[in-house]
UniProtKB/TrEMBL annotation:
<dbReference type="InterPro" id="IPR037108">
    <property type="entry name" value="TM1727-like_C_sf"/>
</dbReference>
<dbReference type="Pfam" id="PF10728">
    <property type="entry name" value="DUF2520"/>
</dbReference>
<dbReference type="InterPro" id="IPR018931">
    <property type="entry name" value="DUF2520"/>
</dbReference>
<dbReference type="InterPro" id="IPR008927">
    <property type="entry name" value="6-PGluconate_DH-like_C_sf"/>
</dbReference>
<feature type="domain" description="Pyrroline-5-carboxylate reductase catalytic N-terminal">
    <location>
        <begin position="2"/>
        <end position="87"/>
    </location>
</feature>
<dbReference type="GO" id="GO:0016491">
    <property type="term" value="F:oxidoreductase activity"/>
</dbReference>
<dbReference type="InterPro" id="IPR036291">
    <property type="entry name" value="NAD(P)-bd_dom_sf"/>
</dbReference>
<dbReference type="InterPro" id="IPR028939">
    <property type="entry name" value="P5C_Rdtase_cat_N"/>
</dbReference>
<dbReference type="Pfam" id="PF03807">
    <property type="entry name" value="F420_oxidored"/>
</dbReference>
<protein>
    <recommendedName>
        <fullName>F420-dependent NADP oxidoreductase</fullName>
    </recommendedName>
</protein>
<keyword id="KW-0560">Oxidoreductase</keyword>
<feature type="domain" description="DUF2520">
    <location>
        <begin position="126"/>
        <end position="252"/>
    </location>
</feature>
Length: 260
């Protein structure tokens, strides 16, 4: 396939590199030309910074930009590639943001966290696809299967629920790790001592129902320890962390109060 990208960030970078193993990457378009040039060099493509330069002889255009930019991008690119298949990579954006303007539209959403510092194991990564036309869905299905066998045909509503769950499972949990590090850094304690605990907790969450393996002072109704921790955070002049600790503890207590 001949594939071009609008966007040169984390998702675009990882997808373009993965696609380049089996397909031809034609162009990388970004308003920041040096960023486009960096990715284009890695995948053997041409870098552009203007929508009018988009090559029409392509099979697929991937819009890999921030959610709030998708609407303006599709309005800008539609006129230059009116027939080609165009997809976005967002977990929370409805396919209709494209299809209301461009009939040959779809979604190619990798359910994964991306950073420039780490490679993606595509064979383990679920890919959620959606398309308005049956032929386009078939094309996206074949493309997704070239990366992973974990391919799912989910609606925009279903994909949104997964994206919300991903925020809890990934973004919020990572902030909890950040808060944990802030806590031990202030006491000059080595954060790496928590690594085995972090890994074991994540492993249990993938092997059991998380509600069944919840541990800690809140689920044990150990109010003395909960109060001790909150007072410690206040003494450390961290009322923000104390508030989060209290709210999470209350949520855990409420959740397990309803369990049989």
């Amino acid at each position: 396939m001949r594939i071009s990208f609008v966007g040169s960030g984390k998702v675009a970078t990882h997808l373009a590199k993965a696609f380049a193993q089996q397909h031809q990457i034609i162009q990388i378009m970004s308003r920041n030309l040096p960023h486009a040039e960096k990715l284009a060099h890695q995948v053997g493509a041409c870098a552009i910074d203007n929508y009018s330069q988009i090559e029409q002889e392509i099979d697929l255009l991937v819009i890999a930009v921030s959610d709030q930019s998708i609407s303006s991008v599709i309005q800008a690119v539609h006129v230059f590639v009116p027939e080609q298949l165009i997809v976005h990579t967002s977990g929370s954006t409805d396919v209709k943001i494209l299809s209301d303007i461009h009939s040959n539209a779809g979604v190619f959403y990798p359910l994964q966290t991306f950073s420039f510092e780490r490679d993606i194991h595509w064979s383990d990564t679920p890919l959620l696809i959606e398309a308005e036309q049956a032929n386009s869905l078939s094309i996206l299905n074949a493309l997704a299967n070239s990366l992973t066998k974990r391919v799912y045909h989910y609606s925009s509503t279903q994909r949104l629920s997964l994206h919300l769950a991903a925020v809890f499972a990934c973004n919020f949990s990572n902030y909890c790790y950040d808060m944990a590090k802030q806590t031990v850094d202030q006491a000059q304690v080595d954060f790496s001592l928590l690594y085995p605990l972090i890994l074991e907790t994540a492993k249990k969450a993938t092997q059991h129902d998380p509600v069944q393996v919840q541990t800690g002072p809140a689920v044990r109704h150990d109010h003395n320890i909960v109060e001790l921790h909150q007072n410690l955070l206040l003494k450390a002049n961290r009322p923000d962390l104390k508030d989060i600790y209290q709210r999470l503890s209350q949520a855990i207590i409420a959740r397990h109060h309803t369990q049989p």
